[in-house]
Write a structure and sequence with these properties.
It is a single chain. The chain is an alpha+beta fold and 226 residues long. The chain folds into 2 domains: 48 residues, no CATH class; 162 residues, L,D-transpeptidase catalytic domain-like. Helices cover 26% and strands 20% of the residues. It contains 4 helices and 8 strands. It has an 8-stranded mixed beta sheet with strand order 3-2-1-8-4-5-6-7. Strand 6, helix 3 and strand 7 form a beta-alpha-beta unit. It starts with a helix and ends with a strand.
Length: 226
């Protein structure tokens, strides 16, 4: 069978129209094939994850919390679910170590001891920070949690300092541990906790709660806002 030039041109036009119809039909069914949710189109914005908490949770100094949040980006901390914020403006008989859920804004707070070199008169208040070896003082700045180990106080957790104010934390063995002088009965007897050698010392019950949330390289930010 042979076709004239006129007939061939007519067939070509029909083919092009059919291709256009096929493309339009495919565009109607494609969203369902690639997993676009029912009731939306390929151009409908999909829900996005809830952004991290921006404002300061209740009970935490807003300026201190802002510094802790900034440290997440400054030090490129990967874990963005839980952080520890330590307010050393407060005395040791108050709950000043705050574990914050950045997704919900929920806060759980604990008592924590500071170093004897930071409180030489043992009045329960941190008076100064130090990063020096042999100072027995608390250091301020951004930390991340490290490995578990068994030491003098049983199960403990290493920390690493990321700022010029606390970069000796790991070689100074500034760690998270429990201690008898951080148990609640110290408050009833003395009105304050005992002092560490610069470590974050908790009661045994609180230590496990803190470590369970902040293990795995999560941020701890400790400071005192003037």
């Amino acid at each position: 069978m042979s076709f004239s030039r006129r007939e061939l041109m007519q067939f070509g036009a029909c083919g092009a129209a059919g291709a256009m119809l096929s493309t339009a039909a495919a565009a109607q069914v494609l969203p369902s094939l690639i997993g676009v949710p029912a009731g939306t189109s390929a151009t409908t914005p999909l829900p996005v994850a809830k952004p991290p908490l921006v404002t300061s949770p209740a009970g935490i100094d807003p300026q201190l919390f802002a510094k802790a949040k900034a440290a997440l980006d400054q030090h490129k901390i990967a874990a963005r679910d839980w952080i520890g914020v330590v307010d050393f403006n407060k005395p040791s008989n108050e709950e000043r170590f705050h574990v914050v859920d950045l997704r919900s804004g929920e806060v759980e707070s604990f008592r924590v001891a500071h170093g004897s070199g930071s409180d030489p008169r043992h009045n329960g208040f941190l008076e100064r920070f130090s990063n020096e070896f042999g100072s027995y003082a608390t250091s301020n700045g951004a930390y991340t949690t490290g490995d578990y180990y068994h030491g003098k106080y049983g199960l403990s957790m290493k920390t690493r300092g990321h700022d010029w104010t606390n970069y000796h934390a790991e070689p100074r063995a500034i760690v998270i541990h429990s201690a008898w002088y951080a148990e609640p009965d110290m408050i009833a007897t003395h009105g304050k906790l005992g002092r560490s050698q610069g470590c974050f010392a908790f009661s045994r019950a609180d230590q496990h709660k803190v470590m369970s949330k902040l293990a795995g390289g999560r941020l701890i930010y400790a400071d005192k806002i003037a």
